Amino acid sequence: MMDLFETRRVAVFDAYGTLLDVHAAVRRHARAIGPEADRFSELWRTKQLEYSWTLGLMGRYASFWSLTERALDYALAWHPAVDRTLREPLLDAYRDLDAYPEVPGTLKRLRAAGIRTAILSNGDAGMLSRAIASAGLAADFDAVLSVDPAGTFKTDPRAYALVGERFGVPPEAVLFCSSNRWDIAGAAAFGFGPVWVNRTGLPDEYPDLPPLRVITALDAL
């Protein structure tokens, strides 16, 4: 797979769902949540993303952390049997998500090969800083980029443009990795070389905006 880097010297990663397991927070409290824990976690994640898309289309912006809180409140309202005193423990757990097992080794291998590495995330700077530090990844990136300066969320081209502003490279020099197929579509439309990290074998969509590769884990890089 290193042929992906013949013309690309910057590897950019989405954070949530790609490097960090977004369902780890609920798993830590699954026993207290009960049998609906998996559905609860999926709803929390779905609403978090939905809010970013709807706000982006309206030309509004709010921190991704505030959207994470709102999405959790919705999930709690949808699942009234879940103890609401779990709200703060769940938010604390989301601040310190687990990295997928192959992530540290992959990042170190890329950097050893002379590839610059970065994060481009909807997450705001504060939540990204804590998440990356708690996952032990703080030393593995040349840049951690939040969409905050763009005042919008992915898939707005202004969010992807932050990479070129930081590294001084054109889109075609960037390899972009995400577990989110919509994010891959946005990156392809912008001109990045996208790699879809399809960890759970989801069906493809957005056929007019395909990835360069589909992998099941980042160590396939």
Can you describe this structure in just a few lines?
The chain has 221 residues and is α/β, with parallel strands linked by helices. The chain contains 9 helices and 6 strands. The protein is globular.
Provide a descriptive summary of the structure in words.
The protein starts with 9 loop residues before the first strand and ends in a 6-residue tail after the last strand. The model has no long low-confidence stretch (mean pLDDT 96). With 221 residues, it is α/β, with parallel strands linked by helices. 38% of the residues are buried. Helices cover 43% and strands 12% of the residues. Strands 3-2-1-4-5-6 form a six-stranded parallel β-sheet, sandwiched between helices. The protein is built from nine helices and six strands. The longest helix has 22 residues, at 37-58. Helix 3 packs across helix 4 (64-78). It folds into two domains: 2-21 and 98-220, Rossmann fold; 24-95, Putative phosphatase, domain 2 (DNA polymerase, domain 1, Orthogonal Bundle), CATH 1.10.150.240. The radius of gyration is 17 Å and the shape is globular.
SSE order, as H and E? EHHHHHHEHEHEHEE
**Rough outline:** globular
CATH superfamily of the largest domain: HAD superfamily/HAD-like
CATH class of the largest domain: Alpha Beta
Distance between the termini: 5 Å
How many helices? The count is 9
Structural class, please?
alpha/beta
Q: What is the strand content? A: 5-15%
Helix residue percentage: 40-55%
Strand order of the largest sheet: 3-2-1-4-5-6
Q: How does CATH name the architecture of the largest domain?
A: 3-Layer(aba) Sandwich
The major sheet is characterized as:
6 strands, parallel
Low-confidence stretches: none
**How many separate domains?**
2
Report the average pLDDT across residues. 96
DSSP strand tally = 6
Q: Would you give the CATH topology of the largest domain?
A: Rossmann fold
Q: What would you report as the Rg, rounded to the nearest angstrom? A: 17 Å
